[in-house]
TrEMBL record:
Enzyme class: ligase
Keyword ATP-binding in annotation: yes
Pfam name, any one: Arginosuc_synth
GO molecular function per UniProt: argininosuccinate synthase activity; ATP binding
EC number of the protein: 6.3.4.5
Protein name per its UniProtKB record: Argininosuccinate synthase
Residue sites binding L-citrulline per the record: 89, 125, 129, 177, 186, 262, 274
Keyword Translocase: no
This protein's encoding gene: argG_1
Primary site of residence: cytoplasm
Pathway the protein takes part in: Amino-acid biosynthesis; L-arginine biosynthesis; L-arginine from L-ornithine and carbamoyl phosphate: step 2/3
Subunit structure of this chain's protein: Homotetramer.
CDD domains referenced in this protein's UniProt entry, alphabetically: ASS (cd01999)
């Protein structure tokens, strides 16, 4: 089945992507497999992964540190869009996919490969995200997905790998399927497949149990510059450092856990556990700062576009004309989103308790009920008459 001569394989070091290497060569007649492992700040040691790919038969094994690119080019724009899929999931895993697709396409073009390969199965969202993003970036490239087609069970996959020198996992593997990067973790499968079963504490890594969280509240001050997080507790920090510190502070107070049944793109419902301590608080703080600096009509109109934006990203359409157009709108709205938000963290809760900005549209003399009031009270009656006129006319005609 000579589908391609030279391919670039998205490589994680797990069973499926390791078995992809001999499978591509022996079943599909691929001559040269180049693997690419993307470091998005997941904290794994990537040198053993690089070596494992070579041992499994890769001609070349690439490791790309793309953490900074991930945060600045993918995560920060999503924070500006207040992106929460189904009002809960901050896309921590989904946001990495268009970047990995971009790295695969760049590597394929550099090495003259005629196809890229991923290890996604047929039921998940990621296959769609990879296939569509790659098609958008280079429609001439073929996309191969052996795990979607080989029809082997987990046991058969391991046995196939052993036949060609891919070692089977030595320890009893965890029942969970876990994906992680700097922004968060997604956990599914095993006991979690029953939506009635409470997750065991072992599924969490970035967040403390509420029972173990500190007994005193903590306050964090997050500074934004044109919609991007740039300061933490008054200190200017680079993106990776800011997110890393915030994850640690927020997670310590038991904030950042999500347990939800979500609607996948492929039409099935899936029970997911997410941990995204820093990202959830950044979106919450950003949203609150916008309430201070954006006009009413922009705030309300942006809400609808945020929902569309989130669905586009979740559904694999990061590189699409509509997403690009919404990006332009969001960028325009962020010009005034500079200021500081104060968040109180306590026993699993994060509450915004203060916000300030040089661009604030909040006018104390208009809002006050005290003696400083400058609002023209006489204007109210005429305004209400005009505002209510259509309702009054309608009522007279239909009573």
């Amino acid at each position: 089945m000579g589908r391609a001569e030279k391919v670039v394989l998205a490589y994680s070091g797990g069973v499926d992507t390791s078995v992809c290497i001999p499978y591509l060569k022996h079943e599909w007649g691929v001559e040269e497999v180049i693997t690419l492992a993307a470091d998005l700040g997941q904290g794994d040691e990537l040198e053993p992964i690089r070596v494992k790919a070579l041992d499994a038969g890769a001609a070349e094994s690439l490791v790309m540190d793309a953490t900074e690119r991930f945060v600045t080019d993918y995560v920060f724009p999503a924070i500006q869009a207040n992106a929460l899929y189904e009002d809960r999931y901050p896309l921590c895993t989904a946001l990495g996919r268009p970047l990995i697709a971009k790295l695969l396409v760049e590597a394929a073009e550099k090495y003259g490969a005629d196809a890229v390969v991923h290890g996604c199965t047929a039921k998940g969202n990621d296959q769609v995200r990879f296939d569509v993003a790659i098609a958008a970036l280079n429609p001439a490239l073929k996309v191969l997905a052996p795990a979607r087609e080989w029809g082997m069970s987990r046991e058969e996959t391991i046995a196939y790998g052993e036949k060609y020198g891919v070692p089977s996992p030595v320890k009893k593997s965890s029942p969970y399927s876990i994906d992680k990067n700097l922004m968060g973790r997604s956990v599914e499968a095993g006991p979690l497949e029953d939506p009635w079963v409470e997750p065991l504490e072992e599924v969490y890594e970035m967040t403390q149990a509420i029972a173990d969280a500190p007994d005193e509240p903590a306050y964090v001050e997050i500074g934004f510059t044109q919609g991007n997080p740039t300061r933490l507790n008054g200190e200017a920090l680079a993106p990776i450092e800011l997110v890393t510190q915030l994850n640690q502070i927020v997670g310590q107070h038991g904030v950042g856990r999500i347990d939800m049944v979500e609607n996948r793109l492929v039409g099935i419902k899936s029970r997911e556990i997410y941990e995204a301590p820093g990202l959830l608080v950044l979106i919450q703080a950003h949203q609150d700062l916008e309430s201070l600096v954006l006009t009413k009509d922009v705030t309300h109109y942006k809400k609808g576009l945020e929902q569309t934006y989130t669905q586009l990203v979740y559904n694999g359409l990061w590189y699409s004309p509509l997403k690009e157009a919404i990006d332009a709108f969001i960028q325009q709205t962020q010009q005034q989103v500079t200021g500081t938000v104060r968040v109180k963290l306590f026993k699993g809760t994060a509450v915004v308790v203060g916000r300030k900005s040089e661009q604030s549209l909040y006018t104390p003399t208009l809002a006050t009920y005290g003696s400083d009031d400058t609002f023209d009270h006489k204007a109210a009656e005429g305004f209400i008459y005009v505002w209510g006129l259509p309702t009054r006319v309608w009522s007279q005609k239909t009573r």
